[in-house]
Amino acid sequence: MKERRRERLRSLLIRELTDIIRSEIDLPENLFITVRDVYLSKDGSKATVYISALRKEDALTAVETLNRAVGYIHHLLGKRLKMRVVPRPEFVALPEELL
């Protein structure tokens, strides 16, 4: 995948995942998370999504909840992106040293 296309897809995924998480996924109350970054595989079939929160426990709770709903999130991305191969997300808590 060309670098320019990868960068455009990366920013599109950040925007769409943020919207999906905010509007479609039921996270516990008072849980404020941010999609910080997305890393795409070389062929664009997998996306590692880095999540951050104010507290590390909140980030781990959000990652656990989002990874349980990854099939539904992938389905919603497929409907929104209109691509042949939609990247399958995997959610990871952003390490504290990178905050």
Descriptive report:
- The protein is of the alpha+beta class and 99 residues long.
- It has one domain (3-98): K homology (KH) domain (GMP Synthetase, Chain A, domain 3, 2-Layer Sandwich), CATH 3.30.300.
- The chain is 46% helix and 22% strand.
- It is built from three helices and three strands.
- It has helices spanning 3-23, 56-68, 70-81; strands spanning 33-40, 46-53, 88-93.
- The protein has a three-stranded mixed sheet with strand order 1-2-3, covered by helices on one side.
- Helix 1 packs across helix 3.
- The chain is globular and about 35 Å long.
- The protein starts with a helix and ends in a 6-residue tail after the last strand.
- The mean pLDDT is 91.
